[in-house]
Structures are given as C-alpha cells and as structure tokens.
Amino acid sequence: MTHASPAANSGAPQRFPVVVVGAGPAGLTTGNILRAASVDCLVLETETREFIEQRPRAGVIEEWAVRGLEKRGLARNLLDRAELHTACEFRFDGERYRFPYGELTGSHHFVYPQPLLVTDLVREYADVRGGRIRFGVRDVRLHDLGTDRPSVSYLCPDTGERRVVHCDFVAGCDGARGVTRAALPPERVRIARHDYGIGWLALLAEAPPSADCVLFGCHVRGFAGQMPRSPEVTRYYLQCPPGDDPENWPHERVWAELQERLGAAGVPPLTEGRLIEKRVLDMHDYVVEPMVHGRLFLAGDAAHLVAPIAAKGMNLALHDAFLLGDALVAHLTMGDDGGLAGYAQACLRRVWDYQEFSQWLSEVYHGTASGDPFRAGTTLARLRRLFTSRAAAAAFAEQYLGTAARY
C-alpha cells in the first residue's frame, strides 16, 4: 500500500532520480543501465549481499536475453562460463526422443545459474559503475506515487532510523512478495491468476547431470525433469501434490521416482547424489495490470509470475529491465517519454505469449498423469507430433527459445 508522506524528522532526506526496490536480475539490470548512462540511482534490498549471491534460482537464459546483456556490457562472465544447450530430450512411453532445437532454429539456450548472474550484476553495479545500494533494509514504504514528487523510506539496518529518499521514479523489482506491488491502488489493479492444481518438488543434487541436456519425463506417475546446472550439481523436479511436505520425500523415495519417471530403453540409470535442497513449488501464474501507477513501474515477478514449467521467469525479468532501463534513460537524459508511455504494453505482449506457452507445455508435461484417459491420449498425440511434423517441431522450438516473441 502507499503510505502517507514520511514525517519531517525521519532523518536527513536524500535524492536520486530513480530508486530501485529489489536487487534481483530485474533491479540490478535496470540499475546498471542507468549507471552506464551516468544516471544516479539507489537500489534497496532487504537481504544481504551474501544471501542474494547464493540464493538458488533459475539457470536457463534465452539467447536474445544474453545478447541484451552483452549489448549493455553485462555478459562478460556469462559468455565465458555458461554452458550452451542446443537440444532437449523427452522421455515417454518408455522411449527417449531427442529434440535438436538448435538445428531447427540456429539458436540455443545458455545455462548460467541465477546466483552467478546476480553476483556479476551486483559487482558491475556497485563495484565497477559506482552505483549506490543498501542491503538489509527493513520496512520499505512508498509515498506520493501519484505526484511528481514521490519518495521511498526505509529503516536503516545500522541505526534503526527511518531514512527518506526523494526521487522522480520508483522501479518496483522486489518480487512476488515485495512491497511495491502492494502499493498499487486495489480498486485499480487486476491480478489475473491461474492455478495448475499441481506441485513440483524442486531438488538440487550433488551429482553430475545424467545427460548432456535437459530431460523431460512425461510419465503416468507424474512429471520429472532434469536441468543441468554445473558439472557437479543438477536440478531435478518431481510432480507432487500441491502443498506437499518436502519431508514426505526422503532420499530413497526421491531417487526411486526419478529413476522410474526419467527411465527409458537403452539409457543407464541416473547418477545419484546427496540432496542439498528440497522445496515444494505450487504451480501457478499471475499477471498484474496495470504494471504502472503514477511514478511507480513494476518489473519482473512484482508484475508477473510464470511457473517454472517453461523456464521463462528470469527471461521475462530481463526483458522488463531492458525496456524500463532504456525508457528511464531516454526520459532523464533526453526528455523522451515514448518508452515510459509504452512500457507496460510492450512488456505484457511478451508476458502473455510466455504464459500461453507455459499453459500448453503444462498439459504436455502433466497430461499423462492426470488420470483422465482422454487427456492422456491427447497428450501423447502432442508429443508424437513434435517428432513427426517439422512444422510442429519448428513452432515448438520458436516458443521454447523465445525467438517467436520479437517485440
């Protein structure tokens, strides 16, 4: 919610053209774009620097997003260290089917865990480009967003005093549980939400990947996925009931289900290892409209969440940040308002495209385990079509890589 103007004795006020709330990929990319144009900004983050640089998150970055980072001088380590993936593999009906999307499109995925990207971005922003950032802040509040004199206040982690920062714009990049989305007037906001009614057990294993690409297991017992993260660590997913307790999944049960759901004729068993993370994710999507209120511009998960079904979340966050950072620079350095005026519309076109693909892909992943013979049959028909129709394969590859959504 929007708070009343802070009290006059709330500490010596500061002023920055832009305050960025949240130091994830969206916030740090926006901040880096501003600093590259010599626009001052302040990034506020509730967690510590060490925490955000180690927090396990996504790892698949689409090629257009990497080129966008490269264009802005933010991809040096990524290009040196990321793995390139040009194929994925579906396993269903006891067989394996390799899908060579690189051959079909000439494009590929980069696999670069989000903590590494965040580490790169915060180093570039704070240590190289001299951007101001405050970690560990508490009780962030937004004020007077509907005026041309907005401000943000927060409790200083060192003194406990409330600090006030005046600004021209606020970039809300603080994720699904942050304060910036709550600042939108409830009578003016619409949140379109879709619940899939399933959960995924998200796992990190101290084990090398058992294949050189992403694996999708479409099985009557439920979906399973393997997503390589590094030569030593692998991300796995297992379909489970929504709200399930991770403690219901001991080591032996996890590996037995992964071996069953990702098994196929002629392939060796998965390489097992110690499980270093177990979380249950309830699959749901949402889109917040409008993404803009007065001088507040939302980006990333603060504005929209896409379930990890299609590995699109970090890519959408970067897309928002490219548009928002460029639009703020154009306004603040040249007085050009075109980018800010069209920001939400440009973001939402890609958001809705990715949401639709996520829904389609969910049926491919989960239809065989639905218990409905009709859904199971149509799911298998979709899967077989990918490997018998070049047109169907090309359409899937474009959506999977994000190359169809050129806006």
Would you tell me the overall average pLDDT?
94
| N/C terminus separation | 32 Å
Please mark out the parts with pLDDT under 50 across 5 or more consecutive residues, or reply none: none
Assembly annotation = single chain
* Overall 3D form: globular
Q: Could you tell me the number of beta strands?
A: 20
Strand-residue proportion:
25-35%
Organism: Streptomyces olindensis
Keywords: FAD, Flavoprotein
Protein name: 4-hydroxybenzoate 3-monooxygenase
Blueprint (SSEs and pairs):
Elements: E1 2-3, E2 14-21, H1 25-36, E3 41-45, H2 49-52, E4 60-62, H3 63-71, H4 76-81, E5 83-85, E6 88-92, E7 95-99, H5 101-105, E8 109-111, H6 114-128, E9 132-135, E10 138-143, E11 151-155, E12 162-172, E13 190-206, E14 214-217, E15 224-228, E16 234-240, H7 251-261, E17 274-289, E18 292-293, E19 296-298, E20 304-305, H8 313-334, H9 338-341, H10 343-366, H11 373-386, H12 390-401
Parallel strand pairs: 1-10, 2-3, 2-12, 3-9, 6-14, 12-19
Antiparallel strand pairs: 4-8, 5-8, 6-7, 10-11, 11-12, 13-16, 13-17, 14-15, 15-16, 17-20, 18-19
Helix pairs in contact: 1-6, 1-8, 8-10, 10-11
Protein architecture, described:
- It is a single chain.
- The chain has 407 residues and is α/β, with parallel strands linked by helices.
- It is built from twelve helices and 20 strands.
- The strands form three sheets. Strands 1, 2, 3, 9, 10, 11, 12, 18 and 19 form a nine-stranded mixed sheet that branches.
- A hairpin with a 6-residue loop joins strand 11 and strand 12 (162-172).
- Helix 8 (313-334) runs antiparallel to helix 10 (343-366) and helix 10 crosses helix 11 (373-386).
- The longest helix has 24 residues, at 343-366.
- The protein is globular and about 65 Å long.
- The chain starts with a strand and ends in a 6-residue tail after the last helix.
- InterPro entries: FAD-bd, FAD/NAD-bd_sf, RIFMO-like.
- This is 4-hydroxybenzoate 3-monooxygenase.
- Residues 16-357 form the FAD-binding domain.
- Keywords: FAD, Flavoprotein.
